[in-house]
Design brief:
This protein is of the alpha+beta class. It folds into 2 domains: 121 residues, Ferredoxin Thioredoxin Reductase, CATH 3.90.460; 44 residues, Rubrerythrin, domain 2, CATH 2.20.28. It is built from 6 helices and 5 strands. The strands form 2 sheets. It has a 3-stranded antiparallel β-sheet with strand order 4-3-5, with no helix packed on it. A hairpin with a 5-residue loop joins β3 and β4. α1 crosses α2.
Protein backbone atom coordinates (compact mmCIF):
# COMPACT_ATOMS: atom_id res chain seq x y z
CA UNK A 1 0.00 0.00 0.00
CA UNK A 2 1.24 3.49 -0.83
CA UNK A 3 2.16 5.66 2.12
CA UNK A 4 -0.11 8.66 2.52
CA UNK A 5 1.86 11.87 2.73
CA UNK A 6 0.73 15.25 3.93
CA UNK A 7 1.55 16.63 0.50
CA UNK A 8 -0.78 14.09 -1.15
CA UNK A 9 -3.58 15.10 1.22
CA UNK A 10 -2.94 18.79 0.49
CA UNK A 11 -2.89 18.26 -3.28
CA UNK A 12 -6.15 16.30 -3.18
CA UNK A 13 -7.84 19.03 -1.10
CA UNK A 14 -6.49 21.81 -3.34
CA UNK A 15 -7.64 20.00 -6.50
CA UNK A 16 -11.11 19.49 -5.06
CA UNK A 17 -11.30 23.12 -3.94
CA UNK A 18 -10.33 24.34 -7.43
CA UNK A 19 -12.86 22.03 -9.08
CA UNK A 20 -15.73 23.52 -7.06
CA UNK A 21 -14.52 27.12 -6.95
CA UNK A 22 -13.52 27.00 -3.27
CA UNK A 23 -10.32 27.80 -1.45
CA UNK A 24 -8.53 26.15 1.45
CA UNK A 25 -8.53 27.90 4.82
CA UNK A 26 -6.16 30.90 4.68
CA UNK A 27 -4.73 30.32 8.20
CA UNK A 28 -1.61 28.19 7.55
CA UNK A 29 -1.43 26.70 11.07
CA UNK A 30 -5.13 25.84 11.18
CA UNK A 31 -4.97 24.41 7.65
CA UNK A 32 -1.96 22.29 8.62
CA UNK A 33 -3.85 20.79 11.58
CA UNK A 34 -6.86 19.96 9.37
CA UNK A 35 -4.67 18.28 6.75
CA UNK A 36 -2.86 16.30 9.46
CA UNK A 37 -6.26 15.18 10.79
CA UNK A 38 -7.32 14.01 7.32
CA UNK A 39 -4.07 12.12 6.91
CA UNK A 40 -4.39 10.50 10.34
CA UNK A 41 -7.98 9.45 9.65
CA UNK A 42 -7.07 8.00 6.26
CA UNK A 43 -4.26 6.00 7.84
CA UNK A 44 -6.50 4.89 10.70
CA UNK A 45 -9.68 4.00 8.77
CA UNK A 46 -8.57 3.61 5.16
CA UNK A 47 -10.59 6.64 4.05
CA UNK A 48 -10.23 10.40 4.72
CA UNK A 49 -13.09 11.08 7.11
CA UNK A 50 -13.63 14.66 8.24
CA UNK A 51 -11.04 15.76 10.79
CA UNK A 52 -13.76 17.67 12.65
CA UNK A 53 -16.14 14.78 13.28
CA UNK A 54 -15.98 11.48 15.12
CA UNK A 55 -15.87 8.62 12.65
CA UNK A 56 -17.06 5.14 13.49
CA UNK A 57 -14.36 3.38 11.50
CA UNK A 58 -17.08 1.64 9.48
CA UNK A 59 -17.19 2.90 5.90
CA UNK A 60 -20.91 2.28 5.52
CA UNK A 61 -21.66 4.51 8.54
CA UNK A 62 -19.17 7.22 7.58
CA UNK A 63 -19.91 7.70 3.87
CA UNK A 64 -21.45 11.11 4.48
CA UNK A 65 -18.38 12.45 6.31
CA UNK A 66 -15.66 11.36 3.90
CA UNK A 67 -13.91 14.57 2.95
CA UNK A 68 -15.27 16.48 1.19
CA UNK A 69 -18.34 15.58 3.20
CA UNK A 70 -21.92 15.71 1.95
CA UNK A 71 -22.54 18.82 4.02
CA UNK A 72 -19.70 20.92 2.59
CA UNK A 73 -21.50 22.53 -0.33
CA UNK A 74 -24.57 23.78 1.56
CA UNK A 75 -22.33 24.96 4.43
CA UNK A 76 -20.00 26.91 2.13
CA UNK A 77 -22.92 28.49 0.30
CA UNK A 78 -24.74 29.49 3.48
CA UNK A 79 -21.90 30.22 5.93
CA UNK A 80 -18.82 30.81 3.76
CA UNK A 81 -17.02 27.70 5.03
CA UNK A 82 -17.62 24.02 5.63
CA UNK A 83 -18.15 22.70 9.18
CA UNK A 84 -14.42 22.30 9.91
CA UNK A 85 -13.50 25.35 7.78
CA UNK A 86 -11.14 23.43 5.51
CA UNK A 87 -13.01 24.70 2.44
CA UNK A 88 -14.00 28.37 2.25
CA UNK A 89 -15.56 30.76 -0.26
CA UNK A 90 -13.45 33.35 -2.03
CA UNK A 91 -14.69 36.22 0.16
CA UNK A 92 -13.74 34.32 3.32
CA UNK A 93 -10.35 33.41 1.85
CA UNK A 94 -9.65 37.04 1.03
CA UNK A 95 -10.70 38.14 4.52
CA UNK A 96 -13.67 40.27 3.48
CA UNK A 97 -16.03 37.91 5.33
CA UNK A 98 -15.32 36.74 8.86
CA UNK A 99 -15.53 32.99 9.39
CA UNK A 100 -18.04 32.09 12.07
CA UNK A 101 -18.91 28.68 13.54
CA UNK A 102 -21.03 26.53 11.24
CA UNK A 103 -23.87 24.57 12.82
CA UNK A 104 -23.74 20.78 12.51
CA UNK A 105 -25.93 19.48 9.65
CA UNK A 106 -25.16 15.82 10.19
CA UNK A 107 -28.30 14.15 11.55
CA UNK A 108 -28.17 13.05 15.18
CA UNK A 109 -28.85 9.42 14.33
CA UNK A 110 -25.71 9.36 12.15
CA UNK A 111 -23.67 11.05 14.85
CA UNK A 112 -24.91 8.59 17.46
CA UNK A 113 -23.74 5.63 15.35
CA UNK A 114 -20.18 6.92 15.53
CA UNK A 115 -20.42 7.53 19.27
CA UNK A 116 -21.89 4.07 19.84
CA UNK A 117 -19.12 2.34 17.88
CA UNK A 118 -16.41 4.49 19.48
CA UNK A 119 -17.75 3.79 22.98
CA UNK A 120 -17.39 0.01 22.61
CA UNK A 121 -13.87 -1.03 23.58
CA UNK A 122 -12.16 -3.53 21.21
CA UNK A 123 -12.31 -6.31 23.82
CA UNK A 124 -16.07 -5.76 24.19
CA UNK A 125 -16.85 -6.10 20.49
CA UNK A 126 -18.55 -9.38 19.58
CA UNK A 127 -16.53 -12.01 17.74
CA UNK A 128 -17.16 -12.06 13.98
CA UNK A 129 -18.27 -15.72 14.17
CA UNK A 130 -21.06 -14.85 16.59
CA UNK A 131 -24.16 -14.10 14.53
CA UNK A 132 -27.08 -12.11 15.82
CA UNK A 133 -30.56 -13.45 15.20
CA UNK A 134 -32.16 -10.01 15.35
CA UNK A 135 -31.00 -7.17 13.14
CA UNK A 136 -29.72 -4.12 15.01
CA UNK A 137 -32.14 -1.18 14.73
CA UNK A 138 -29.30 1.26 14.00
CA UNK A 139 -28.12 -0.75 10.99
CA UNK A 140 -28.40 1.32 7.84
CA UNK A 141 -30.26 0.22 4.77
CA UNK A 142 -28.44 1.64 1.74
CA UNK A 143 -30.58 2.44 -1.29
CA UNK A 144 -29.93 3.30 -4.89
CA UNK A 145 -30.59 6.98 -5.65
CA UNK A 146 -30.42 8.66 -9.03
CA UNK A 147 -30.28 12.30 -10.01
CA UNK A 148 -33.31 13.10 -12.17
CA UNK A 149 -31.35 15.91 -13.81
CA UNK A 150 -28.17 14.14 -15.00
CA UNK A 151 -28.64 10.44 -14.19
CA UNK A 152 -25.87 10.14 -11.58
CA UNK A 153 -26.46 7.03 -9.41
CA UNK A 154 -25.29 6.53 -5.83
CA UNK A 155 -25.72 3.66 -3.31
CA UNK A 156 -26.26 5.11 0.17
CA UNK A 157 -28.81 5.37 2.94
CA UNK A 158 -29.77 8.93 1.88
CA UNK A 159 -29.21 11.01 -1.25
CA UNK A 160 -26.39 13.59 -1.17
CA UNK A 161 -27.21 17.25 -0.45
CA UNK A 162 -26.09 18.17 -3.95
CA UNK A 163 -25.30 16.08 -7.00
CA UNK A 164 -21.52 15.91 -7.43
CA UNK A 165 -21.94 15.93 -11.22
CA UNK A 166 -24.54 18.60 -12.04
CA UNK A 167 -25.00 20.34 -8.63
CA UNK A 168 -28.74 19.59 -8.52
CA UNK A 169 -30.26 19.83 -5.05
CA UNK A 170 -31.14 16.80 -2.92
CA UNK A 171 -34.78 17.10 -3.95
CA UNK A 172 -33.81 16.09 -7.51
CA UNK A 173 -32.80 12.59 -6.33
CA UNK A 174 -35.25 9.71 -6.50
CA UNK A 175 -34.92 6.22 -5.08
CA UNK A 176 -34.48 3.34 -7.49
CA UNK A 177 -36.60 0.42 -6.31
CA UNK A 178 -35.33 -3.00 -7.29
CA UNK A 179 -36.90 -6.42 -7.12
CA UNK A 180 -35.43 -9.82 -7.81
CA UNK A 181 -37.69 -12.70 -8.79
CA UNK A 182 -36.38 -16.24 -8.66
CA UNK A 183 -37.94 -18.64 -11.13
CA UNK A 184 -37.49 -22.35 -11.06
Amino acid sequence: MTEITLEMVRQRAEADARTYGYYLNPDPNFLQSLLEGLKRNEERYGYPSCPCRLASGKFEFDRDIICPCDYRDPDVVEFGACYCALYVRKDAHEGSTELKPVPERRPLEKQSRAYTVAAVAPEEKPEPAAKKEVEAPSEIKPKLWYCKQCGYVVFRDEPPYTCPVCKAKREMFAEIKTRIDFVG
